[in-house]
Design goal:
Strand content of chain B: over 45%
Number of strands of chain A: 11
Oligomer: heterodimer
Mean pLDDT of chain B: 93
Distance between the termini of chain B: 41 Å
Largest sheet of chain B: 6 strands, mixed
Largest sheet of chain A: 7 strands, mixed
Structural class of chain A: mainly beta
Number of helices of chain A: 0
Strand content of chain A: over 45%
Distance between the termini of chain A: 37 Å
Shape of chain A: globular
Radius of gyration of chain B: 13 Å
Helix content of chain B: under 10%
Low-confidence stretches of chain A: none
Helix content of chain A: under 10%
């Protein structure tokens, strides 16, 4: 049973560019959440998608946007990249908004130069 | 707002030592509580969970008890191994859609 799959694993971008990160949730899961983890810090909640809609958002600017597809996979887009956007981006999936926890992917390491 | 406080690391122990990592939280209602572990270069793995007061979560020798009166969820293990070296995150679920709230994590280093 495949868990959460994220691509790419590593990415280097230049300031001002745009980036798209991808996530396939665990089989049977319909909800996808995205987190940003800066080096040495805990993950910070970006947003959550359910039924192809963003239903909750953390304290991130509009440069961060997302999408969920009918097969429950998701994309995270970041526009006008800043050096401070360098981080590990984690995708987590769950079934609905249950209280049994989330399954995390291994993340995409984004470096902005 | 909702938050979690963990003891600062790094925590350095010898193999077979007793481990405690303290965690306290503030959250509305009665959140489910989780411990996640992150090994170098990897994502987060669910270690254990507790969904109501006085529940004890356990896995791989690790334990934590949901203490509602002290809003705490301390992680313990009786005898750590070198392979337990990782960063540990305490995380309550919060809000209408149960997002996870993370602190800075506690790095554990176990030496032979």
């Amino acid at each position: 049973d495949a868990g959460v799959t994220q691509s790419p694993t590593h990415l280097i971008k230049t300031r001002g560019q745009q980036v798209t990160l991808r996530c396939s949730p665990k089989s049977g899961h319909d909800t996808v959440s995205w987190y940003q983890q800066a080096l040495g810090q805990g993950p910070q909640f970006i947003f959550q998608y359910y039924e192809e809609e963003e239903r909750q958002r953390g304290n991130f600017p509009d440069r961060f946007s997302g999408h969920q597809f009918p097969n429950y996979s998701s994309e995270l887009n970041v526009n006008a990249l800043l050096l401070g956007d360098s981080a590990l981006y984690l995708c987590a999936s769950s079934f609905g908004s249950n209280n049994y926890g989330y399954t995390f992917g291994s993340g995409t390491r984004l470096t902005v130069v | 707002g909702d938050s979690v406080t963990q003891m600062e690391g790094p925590v350095t122990l010898s193999e077979e030592a007793f481990l405690t990592i303290n965690c306290t939280y503030t959250a509305t209602g009665y959140p489910s509580l989780f411990w996640y572990v992150q090994y170098p270069g990897e994502g987060l793995q669910l270690l254990l969970k507790a969904t109501k007061a006085d529940d004890k979560g356990s896995n791989k020798g690790f334990e934590a008890t949901y203490r509602k009166e002290t809003t705490s969820f301390h992680l313990e293990k009786g005898s750590v191994q070198v392979s337990d070296s990782a960063v540990y995150f305490c995380a309550p679920q919060s809000g209408g859609y149960n997002k996870l709230i993370f602190g800075a994590g506690t790095r554990l280093a176990v030496h032979p």
